[in-house]
Specification:
heterodimer, A: alpha/beta, FAD/NAD(P)-binding domain, 6 domains, 42% helix, B: Ubiquitin-like (UB roll), two-stranded antiparallel sheet, 4 strands, elongated
Chain lengths: 742, 64
């Protein structure tokens, strides 16, 4: 189904289970919300407005809601009737609202002074229509006389009509509609009453086969509660007739498509009133708080994006569509630009949606459209695209297996594993060659940053290059270390099959380098492994074998949440990314075992002790090893390439690491990391200033300042030249705005 | 606001003076006065300006 159709089918606004079975379609979510805040007066107003005669309804309602309540077997259904009563007991003012409206000249006859006719009369009289009620007996109330002491319902009727005028004709039996001269008629003559030869019409709600005449209440088979609801609702159908002369007022559809599994889980014992019959204020609030206010909000509860913005797919779709196709006068009001760039594409919104609405994919396509139109700020993704280009050029490597082994596999570690620690890749490759000597090396980026940036052209280029390399190597099976790479291959290079390094290690019974017998930890599944059950299992087996006791996380396996790296949102929306990390690391107080180096690095940077599973297996870094910064990550990739070439292909190659010519303090390094400014780029700006003499001297400090562009970004550098081509970096910062130099 | 620091253009050996300079971002252009070499027009943008007004305007334009 197309995305727009799926969104149209979203269950966000479906009524709660209780509302769906309520004769009045009472909005329990709204009512209970008010009670939860102790707002009895406004809660009661809501209730009275819905049911017309609160005293009668509280006395006679048989509570179908209690049967439908999702807590029925989880501590007991919410005691709605007692809550309704409490709202009436504790409301500051229970008198009906008085509406100051001009009198209308339309005249309506209500035949039958039972509760359905009175309900209709009440609503129409409140709107200042001229209403006459004809009752054949000597008193109003109809069959309520058989159900309640007359003072109970008469009090309620009197109270509700206190501000309204209508004409009551008792002892007046209408025999034929011809004797009436009215603009509309509501026939509510009770069970077995006179229908004047009319029957219900399928044209509209309460419509009869005669224009201007409506039928409802017990006459058409309704029980007491439905009879009241009929009267209230028939007033709307009558008004449609009076205003536009049509009998086709829509019939209210009952029921709900809400699914119990999509509702927030909960279980709590019902609050019983201490006096046995009615709640105190405190009891009522406590009982109201038990109510789950059932709605389909799984996406907002689970998805980091929808949760952060507190927006449902429909709203997001609307905002994104006006952003892509702006209708403002200047044509560039881009309401949701940042929102589109904030999705981490973890897939959780679709995973938890009972209707499979894939808001993430919609945002991905929208991002692409914005990028193609040149409407997406380049700054959101430029750093990552440049970083990817670095991984795919200077730091890339594609080599057949060392020695003369025939190619069977190719190891695809991805660009981030070696950036975190080159030893992850070195050890893994040694392991693979031991077991599969025909393992080639494909060291480059899978193209995810281009996909996330919505740049179709760059993405296609990366994919084609990978395909060409794979063909050149003889189409081997791939061994992945990164779940995002595998996901990207599945999507864009489906002909290339492969499996995870960790699954192979588990299968080979790999013994970890050290033991962790006394340690309890939690496996943090990367979001891109959501449907990779084999690797989820494999990593758990490896950790258990190393001695760990494992504690399951609330969000794991198919419900795994993104560490914040996905979609590379950190530049487009830093507060969102920071919030996502916080949520992920607060799931428990145990250290994590990750099998995505980005998850590990991001978590340790945020103070959560985390190992990469390879740390454990090969005895590498500790769970608190700091996250390498942007410059170090590039350096690590170059170093990895050099180590691979030296060790496996005996190519004595020393990669030039430009930033070694730059002296930077630890504090400044930290600042550069936060600003996403690699030292390699800073050095190139300094060199350009030096070569062109476009530099400014600060005579007081003896430093030079200058600027240059890195991609579209303007870098400012302040430095002191030292001997042997070295520079001391004093400060650096950057801005997105371009200087229009003459 | 602090007195702008003295800076010398190394190309022209001239002290920088305040000069109207144009900027652009995401299809919008604006100008402000910043120190620039009177001869070669080389400009200087302080970190204070970048972290303050420039970054503010950048964000406004991205969210426009």
């Amino acid at each position: 189904m197309a995305y727009n159709d799926l969104v149209a089918d979203c269950l966000q606004n479906e009524p709660a289970f209780c509302t769906a079975v309520c004769p009045f379609n009472f909005d329990v979510r709204d009512f209970v919300h008010k009670l939860q805040q102790g707002r009895f007066n406004i809660a009661f107003k809501t209730y009275r407005q819905c049911v017309g005669f609160p005293g009668i309804v509280i006395a006679l309602c048989e509570e179908p809601c209690a049967q439908a309540c999702i807590l029925k077997d989880k501590g007991g259904s919410v005691s709605l009737k007692l809550l309704e009563k409490a709202s009436m007991d504790f409301a500051r003012d229970t008198s009906p609202d008085q509406y100051n409206m001009p009198a209308k000249d339309k005249r309506i006859a209500v035949i039958g002074g039972g509760i359905s006719g009175l309900a209709c009369a009440l609503r129409l009289a409140a709107k200042k229509y001229q209403v006459t009620v004809f009752e054949k007996s000597a008193s109003i109330g109809g069959h309520l006389h058989e159900l309640l002491p007359s003072e109970v319902f008469m009090d309620d009727i009197r109270s509700q009509f206190i501000h309204e005028q209508y004409t009551l004709r008792l002892n007046t039996e209408i025999v034929s509609l011809d004797e009436l001269d009215f603009d509309a008629v509501y026939v509510a003559t009770g069970k077995g009453g006179n229908a004047f030869g009319l029957s219900p019409s399928a044209d509209g709600a309460f419509a009869s086969t005669k224009d201007g005449v409506f039928l409802g209440g017990s006459l058409t088979g309704s029980d007491t509660m439905h009879a009241i609801a009929d009267g209230l609702n028939a007033s709307n159908a009558i008004e449609t007739w009076l205003k536009i002369g049509m009998m086709n007022h829509p019939v209210t559809e009952g029921g709900t498509r809400l699914m119990p599994e999509a509702v927030r889980p909960g279980e709590s014992p019902v609050i019983s009133p201490a006096n046995g019959s009615s709640y105190t204020k405190a009891e009522a609030v406590e009982e109201a708080k038990r109510c789950l206010r059932c709605s389909c909000d799984a996406c907002v509860r689970y998805s980091p994006l929808l949760g952060y913005f507190q927006k449902f797919p429909k709203r997001i779709t609307e905002e994104v569509q006006v952003t892509i196709q702006p209708s403002s006068l200047d044509g560039n009001a881009t309401l949701a630009t940042r929102l589109i760039s904030t999705c981490d594409h973890c897939g959780l919104c679709k995973e938890v949606c009972p209707k499979d609405i894939d808001t993430g994919e919609f945002l991905l396509q929208s991002h692409k459209t914005m990028r193609e139109k040149g409407a997406m700020p380049w700054a959101f993704h430029e750093f990552f695209l440049r970083d990817m280009a670095f991984s795919n050029t200077e730091a890339a490597l594609c080599k057949p297996p060392p020695g003369k082994a025939e190619v069977t596999y190719a190891f695809f570690p991805g660009c981030q594993l070696g950036a975190s620690d080159p030893q992850y890749v070195m050890h893994s490759y040694r392991f693979l060659l031991r077991h599969f000597p025909g393992t080639a090396m494909m060291l480059n980026c899978c193209g995810a940053p281009a996909e996330w940036a919505g740049d179709g052209a760059i993405h296609a280029e990366v994919i084609e290059k990978i395909r060409a390399n794979w063909n050149r190597l003889g189409q081997p099976l791939l061994i992945f270390a990164c779940a995002s790479c595998k996901l990207m291959f599945g999507k864009h290079l489906p002909e290339i099959k492969g499996e995870f390094l960790y699954t192979i290690m588990a299968r080979k019974g790999f013994e970890a380098a050290s033991r962790f017998d006394e340690v309890t930890a939690s496996v943090f599944d990367p979001c891109s492994s959501r449907h990779e059950t084999e690797v989820q299992q494999g990593v758990r087996e490896l950790a258990l074998k190393a001695g760990f006791t494992l504690e399951a996380l609330p969000l794991e396996k198919n419900l795994a949440g993104c560490c914040s790296y996905g979609g590379q949102t950190a530049i487009a929306h830093p507060p969102y990314a920071a919030n996502a990390v916080k949520q992920r690391i607060s799931q428990n107080d145990k250290p994590y075992i990750a099998y995505c180096s980005n998850c590990r690095d991001i978590f340790t940077a945020a103070g959560k002790p985390s190992w990469h599973i390879l740390d454990i297996l090969f005895g590498l870094g500790s769970e608190t090893r700091p996250r390498p910064g942007v410059s170090e990550r590039r350096n690590n990739r170059l170093e990895l390439k050099q180590m691979l070439l030296n060790e496996f292909w005996k190519e004595e190659k020393t990669m030039e690491k430009p930033q070694e010519r730059l002296l930077v303090t630890v504090e400044l390094k930290e600042k550069l990391n936060k600003a996403w400014m690699p030292e390699q780029d800073i050095l190139s700006v300094i060199e350009n200033c030096e070569n062109s003499m476009s530099k400014l001297l600060d005579p007081e400090k003896g430093t030079f300042s200058g600027h240059g562009t890195v991609g579209n970004m303007t870098y400012w550098v302040e430095y002191r030249p030292l001997q042997n081509g070295l520079f001391e970096l004093v400060n650096a910062y950057c801005h997105r705005m371009k200087i229009e130099e003459v | 606001m602090a007195e702008p620091k003295k800076l010398i253009c190394m190309k022209c050996n001239k002290e920088l003076e305040l000069k109207k300079t144009d900027f652009s971002y995401l299809g919008h252009t604006f100008f402000t006065e910043v120190p620039a070499c009177p001869l070669c027009k080389q400009v200087y943008i302080s970190e204070e300006l970048v972290k303050g007004r420039i970054s503010e305007v950048e964000m406004q334009l991205e969210d426009k």
